[in-house]
Amino acid sequence: MEADSSLQDRVPRKRRKMQRVTMMDVAKLAQVSPSTVSLYLRKPAAVSPAAGQEIARAISTLGYVPNLVAGGLAAASSKVVSIIVPSIRNAFFAETVSTLQAELAAEGLQVILGHSEYGEDQEEALVRTALSWAPAAVVLTGLSHSTGTRKLLQASGVPVIEMWEIGGKPIDMAVGFSHPQVGASAARHLLSKEGRSIAFLGARMQEDHRAAKRASGFAEEAKRAAEHVTCEIINHPGAATVEAGSLLLSRALQQIPDLDGIACSNDLIALGALFECQRRGIDVPDRIAVVGFGDLDFSASCIPSLTTIRPSGDLIGKEVARLILAGIHGEHPTGASRIIDTGHVLVERRST
Amino acid sequence: MEADSSLQDRVPRKRRKMQRVTMMDVAKLAQVSPSTVSLYLRKPAAVSPAAGQEIARAISTLGYVPNLVAGGLAAASSKVVSIIVPSIRNAFFAETVSTLQAELAAEGLQVILGHSEYGEDQEEALVRTALSWAPAAVVLTGLSHSTGTRKLLQASGVPVIEMWEIGGKPIDMAVGFSHPQVGASAARHLLSKEGRSIAFLGARMQEDHRAAKRASGFAEEAKRAAEHVTCEIINHPGAATVEAGSLLLSRALQQIPDLDGIACSNDLIALGALFECQRRGIDVPDRIAVVGFGDLDFSASCIPSLTTIRPSGDLIGKEVARLILAGIHGEHPTGASRIIDTGHVLVERRST
DNA sequence: CTGAAAGCGCTAACAG
DNA sequence: CTGTTAGCGCTTTCAG
Asked: A–B: how many Cβ contacts below 8 A?
């Protein structure tokens, strides 16, 4: 206390925060130098057991919490991974982000989250601030980005992983699957169930390029596969919701009276379609077969249970984490191993 | 040493990253001092138009991206808000986090995300690393935390907001609603529909304290309201999924043969219950009335449409953001305004 | 194995 | 309005 009054140099001009316990304080108490504390924190084994014990004690009595901001600055790369997804409300991305976050947290990496809302300009802004953190890696969704985004990222030298899509030229690395192939699988499945008048029901396909690619893969496969097959793509401009699914089915029925098979861009849409069929007394799968995409929570339990394509958002999260961690440990994947295909699985249930 | 200083001083010992463009570089090109650049970046109006233009030009030609890590260190508080939720897979929290992220991003704040998976120890660990970022605020879910978490947070001096629950003593500030009251509303509603043998179907209530509180509010209201009312609480130890809902309904029917009303801890459970009723040919709402919680995407569109209690995860996100931003702008709410009740709304639909 | 020294890139008084 | 001056708390050579 008296030190305080005698000379003011330890008194903050503005006590904005409770005087933070620093590594210096720990070092003093443990009677070692700050750099030893730093070393202990990063490689405990490199410090003598005696010193280590002292340091550990000091840390706990002082309640020391390392300042990662300072660490990040000194180390020139912070323990942060920036993830940008269209929307976390989308169960697909929620799953991936959740897994990714867990995997990275286990290695002491933090996740910074941003939502592009399917906008390339928004994404670019997010990338810009993401880069401000000197992140250990940046994770983006999909392969479509503005040229500004691409440049920014390339100039930064930060590892970039694009997820949930492969089949184009990634900026750096990519983990995902081919969306046209998903569409094709859906079409093939419907065709194999004797579908002759089929439709793809999608939402927000102006912005959701991946959904649009599933649709075109679907259409192409339908065209290729058989002569007397009618195939339509129907888009709902709003979000992919259950309600949109009901709307879309109604529209499909209007456009294609003898509709006998639909593929939905998302299980929510499929569920909406299922409900609409139920309301109209249309039998699924006898009159119309339904295949979804996503294998969401309810898909196995709804009535009838939903045939769907599972993209494994989980696996994507795991693989992205693996790539990031490898990068941090100095192993930079090269060549083909920079693109990982997590594939997709068609899960057949009662709706087809 | 001298060799070093004579000509090598601009060469990094280790070219770990593409030489980052710093504020210094911008200053040089714009022929002003670094602090002027810094000032310009924070308050453009405080710099002369001429200098401002030069700086702006320099920034764009150099492609300068400010380093927030350095800024955070210098300013002793980073532009980061740490959010800890049980799981982002849960649509409730996804909604709140999404809104919160958008609101904060608009003010230049980043969101760091962590998942406690309903574990207090995990939460404590997350809080510890969150604090390492000297965040502008920490956002937690619920009012139940380990004493360690509480202490850590209190000692840090960082603004803390607990969300999705009020009714206890918050660490600092709270935004949410009363869960017992939600349970009570559900019970009252069921009772008003002539329910006499009612049950609360919940999941993971050992860990999900808020769900447990909804259950007890439900049971108490039932007890208080009428004499000849039977009320049971049934818990599924696993996650709150559609499948769990089907299971729970089956168990409820076993335990209470004359069951005529159920309240579900979550709309997913309610949907599962609805499906199970359909499978068993039980009419909803005639034989059993169903009320959910969450007003999820499908709740308005399912068959029958689901009566549910809407907690407004959106509004919670907005209010949390408001509180955080107020704090940053120096207005620290005091007294009762530190606790915000966002309430709940019962949305009556066909299932009751 | 430990410590001293030199910054990381930026902000924030303060003085000009 | 602009520049100077100190650090923020930590990491990282490099010597001892």
From this structure: 170
- DSSP assignment of B279-307 equals HHT--TTTT-EEEEES--TTTTTSSSPPE
Rounded to whole angstroms, how far apart are CA atoms A278 and A267?
16
What nucleotide is nearest A21 when CA is compared to C1'?
Answer: D9
B114 at A interface, C-beta within 8 A: yes
Q: Quick check: B78 contacting A, CB < 8 Å?
A: yes
Mean pLDDT to the nearest integer, B49-76 = 88
* Both tokens assigned to B272: 């599962």
Q: Which among B308, B257, B302 has a CA at the least distance from the CA of B280?
A: B257
- pLDDT, tens digit, 9 for 90 and up, residues A181-217: 999 999 999 999 998 999 999 999 999 999 999 999 9
- Is the shortest CB-to-strand distance from B48 to strand D under 7 Å? yes
A62 inside 8 A of chain B by CB? no
The Cα A312–Cα A348 span in angstroms is: 16
Cα distance between residue A50 and residue B205, in whole Å: 45
A201: alpha, beta or left? (left if phi > 0; alpha if psi -120 to 50) = beta
Cβ-nearest to B69 among A69, A242, A278: A69
Is the CB of residue A7 inside 7 Å of nucleic acid strand D? Answer: no
DSSP letter for each residue of B151-187: HHHHHHT--EEEES--SS--SSEEEE--HHHHHHHHH
Sign of CA dihedral B281, A352, A237, A141: positive
A-facing residues of B in 134-153 (CB < 8 A) are: 134, 151-152
**CB of B113 less than 8 A from some CB of A:** yes
pTM above 0.85, yes or no: yes
CA angle B99, B102, B107 (to 5 degrees): 130
Whole-number Å distance between alpha carbons of A176 and A338: 11
Q: Are B293 and B311 in contact (CB under 8 A)?
A: yes
pLDDT, tens digit, for every residue of B311-349?
989 999 999 999 999 888 877 778 788 999 999 999 999
Contact by Cβ (8 Å): A157, B18: yes
DSSP per position, A7-39:
-GGGS-SS--SS----HHHHHHHHTS-HHHHHH
pLDDT in tens, A81-140: 999 999 999 999 999 999 999 999 988 888 999 999 999 999 999 998 898 888 999 999
Domains of chain A, start order: 5-62 (1.10.260), 75-177+314-343 (3.40.50.2300), 179-311 (3.40.50.2300)
CA torsion A127-A130-A134-A137 (nearest 10°) is -70
